[in-house]
Amino acid sequence: MATPPFDRAQGAPSASRGAAPGSATPAGHAPNVTPAMRQYLDAKQQYRDAILFFRMGDFYEMFYEDALVAARALDLTLTSRSKDNQGTSIPMCGVPHHAAEAYLARLVKKGFRVAICDQVEDPKKAKGIVKREIVRVVSPGTLTDAQYLDERAPAFLLSVFMGSPPGTARGSDPVVGVALLDLTTGEFSCAEYAGTAGLQALADEVSVLRPREIVAPIDLDLARVLTDGAAERLPVTRVEPWTFEHESARRTLLDQFRTNGLEGFGLDSHALATSAAGALLHYLRDTQKADLAHVRSVVYKTSADCLLVDAVTLKHLEVVESMEGGREGTLLHELDRTVTAMAGRLLRAWLLRPLVSLDRIHDRLDAVEEFAFRSTDRGKFREVLKSVQDLERLVARAALGNAGPRDLVGLKQSIAVVPRVRLVLDAFEAPLTRSLLSALDELADVRDDIDRTLVDEPGALVRDGGYIRDGLDAELDDLRRISRSGKQVIAELEEREKQRTGISSLKVRYNRVFGYYIEISKSNLHAVPPDYHRKQTIAGGERFITPALKEYEEKVLGADERILEREIELF
Description:
This protein is of the alpha+beta class. It is about 40% helix and about 15% strand. The strands form 3 sheets. A 6-stranded mixed sheet has the order 3-4-2-1-5-6, sandwiched between helices. A hairpin with a 2-residue loop joins strand 1 (about 50-55) and strand 2. Helix 7 (about 245-255) packs across helix 8 and helix 15 crosses helix 18 (about 445-455). The longest helix has 28 residues, at about 475-500.
């Protein structure tokens, strides 16, 4: 299915500001461009209003107007790449691929959307030009890297749709359907609002929950829906209206939840909420190129679920934010003694939307009272929880394909705490605690699978290698044996050459440019054997290669390269 075009987030710096005429616009149908630039132009057509990070070797390059915008936003050096078919230099800038996440975060925080076009095949094995594809789109609402997020606050996307429910009379007031989804945790809810009071309630909800991004159809007048000016304050992404059509949205939800109906989610009689929820899921699945396996349910919310406190009241009462705009001195600051980031987010949500159901209030108070009086057990529980990382966000990163080896080991270590949690909580009797305990899954299969696959202390990045355990994969074990023995052979070769030539200072060394070589100082060049082939002259002597050294180099380096490839395949 073709990707709908997205408009740049409203409020982001204008991409065209300061652009040089001619040089800033990609010639989408220019006949005289290189194959790589043709790939770039084709990718750019898919996401015309996003900055395109185009992978070329060790860099993500940007061209034309994207280069002008990114150079200003990121303080990059602007250069040029040859000329276009009109003889005008093509603006260009780039960032190292290993540091791309930091640059992405900076652009997103300034309101831009970034489409990442990566190499999807090994350049060494490519026949002709390397195949490249858009692998994800990063926007204010889809940034998932933990180091760029507030660990104790949600990161919601909001979708908005307005229309008339099926069966309503012509001329009836339209209904607004909305959906909220936190991609970093999988939390997903939807609701409907109608009339003046409903629109005010929606405005309050948006002001309180502060979504990172709004998704809306191209033809929707957001100022009519979000009456408090949120459409001017927040990044807005416009998508094709067909994604909000009820049947299309309903099919998206059914496919996501692997179900035959939506009655169990309370959506069977809420067409507008269904449209908003389905369209938001479609947007995220399309831009993240993932099935969002961590989004497993959606909750339809009504005013009966909790007390709706408007943003002004919350601010005056300094519930989560002080009058000066900080956290210190607020009710949340005084109450929050939670150990985990997950609990911190949950407590914040509870304070923003207090319960109204008397039964649920009593259940919660009974559980809190028991924890308050069982100080010894509470202390044990808090100590156990100190070993638990942010499970919600770790699972989300894994589901999106963004988790590294260290993330998965963190997931394993957190899951391993569950039996200890169960042991401590088994002493508690409050109904809410018992209910939560009965639903606790130890996930032993997941824990054991990660433990069997990954070493205990891996690096953070997949590209660094060294994270797959020995004994897991026969091919990887064989390659590692070749690599280790090959390097030993290099050491033995150095000693043998010292004895053969009589040059005690002879060194066998390696660098990425020249590979393995034998280095001889100037004072010993007279003793170089005839089978030494000069490779490079340096200030202190010469570098040589021999047939035997070349043979071992190919074996060792080939094994190292294949080791990383195999680790990535297994990961």
